[in-house]
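Many introductory courses stop at the sequence. We go one step further.
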Amino acid sequence: MTQANPDIQAALREAVVEAGRLALKLAAEGYQTHLKAKGEPVTSVDLACDKLLRDRLGRADGQAAWLSEESQDDPARLTCPRVWLVDPVDGTRELLAGRGEWCICAALAQWGQVQAGAIYNPNTQELFEAAAGQGATLNGQPVRVDPSPPPRPILVATRWRVEHGGWDWAGGLAEVRPCGSTAYMLAQVGSGRADGMISLTQKNEWDMAAGALFIQEAGGTITDRNQAALSFNRRRRRIDGVIAARHGARDAVVRIAERLKIEK
């Protein structure tokens, strides 16, 4: 993996923080909401942040293609060496519910591998960053996960599934904590607050890219549900589930993932 350009990392940092501030401002002032074709909510906050990020990141690398949840997909990205992967508000339902576990996430991938990424939660002012070959940081401080195995893993999972009993069977195997957006869950693993995250459902590339690099650079591991390596800027734009863990917890988390396939 080649090392990331420090100018790109600086641009990412500034862009997600600026978008986070804009999101808080618009959320406080009031915003519009409508449903997309598949019934998923989108707000004027999402759209405004998408516009801001496209402008700022485009200035940093205007030759990179663009793949965002809130922009029309251009198939030309498939032949482009580099692509921005962006979710302007990851966790829109959290925003709508007035909870603070949504974030701004953006990453730059080159030939399918993430080179730089940033996740910003403006509610908590947490900035999770990673650059290929240069490590991971939380608010500018280096992050490295504990390599020792846990006595009982702590997992983060989607709020809806936890609150509706989807993880009740795992009580003897792990402590499962509800969490908001996908990117924020990955940040919990990479920062060592949780031992792992498991999802058997497909995930959008834009939700996964920055968090995947953050975990890897912090000393953790991340694969799809079948333990295959991740790659980005694919035609389908989806990743077949996720098994993420800090290194010392990987075996325990994989065992729980296999059990989840049975329980599901």
